[in-house]
């Protein structure tokens, strides 16, 4: 964003450090709070949408039929369970910095 010379850009906190570099500490704080609030919201929305996305993919034949299994109340229990186990395993085994980068890249796609 041309706020900071390229070789001085922060890899972990780009916008807040850019605002600090320009002497705008209040904007750095707002930006840092925005990062803290937005990342969990993005993860929550991703987790909530995952079973329905898997359902649609299973109905198209891209995923196994177990992801399209619906119980008597219309819930996708098996798909939700499988997605939850995969997300728990990923969150447990992959360092947060890598997860943060993957989430950011996924948003850009």
Please, could you describe this protein's structure?
- With 109 residues, this protein is mostly helical.
- The protein is 67% helix and 0% strand.
- The chain is built from four helices and no strands.
- Helix 1 runs antiparallel to helix 2.
- The longest helix is centred in the middle third of the chain and has 35 residues.
- It is elongated, with a radius of gyration of 19 Å.
H/I helix tally:
4
Question: Strand-and-helix sequence, N→C?
Answer: HHHH
Range of strand content: under 5%
- Poorly predicted spans: none
Distance linking N and C termini: 20 Å
The computed structural class is mainly alpha
Largest sheet: none
Write the layout of secondary structure elements.
Elements: H1 14-21, H2 25-59, H3 77-93, H4 96-108
């Amino acid at each position: 964003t041309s706020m900071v010379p390229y070789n001085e850009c922060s890899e972990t906190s780009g916008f807040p450090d850019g605002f600090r570099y320009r002497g705008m500490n209040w904007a750095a704080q707002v930006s840092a709070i925005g990062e803290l609030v937005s990342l969990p919201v993005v993860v929550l929305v991703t987790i909530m949408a995952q079973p329905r996305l898997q359902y649609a993919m299973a109905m198209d034949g891209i995923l196994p039929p177990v992801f399209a299994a619906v119980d008597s109340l219309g819930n996708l229990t098996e798909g939700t369970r499988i997605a939850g186990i995969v997300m728990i395993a990923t969150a447990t085994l992959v360092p947060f910095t890598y997860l943060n980068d993957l989430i950011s890249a996924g948003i850009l796609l």
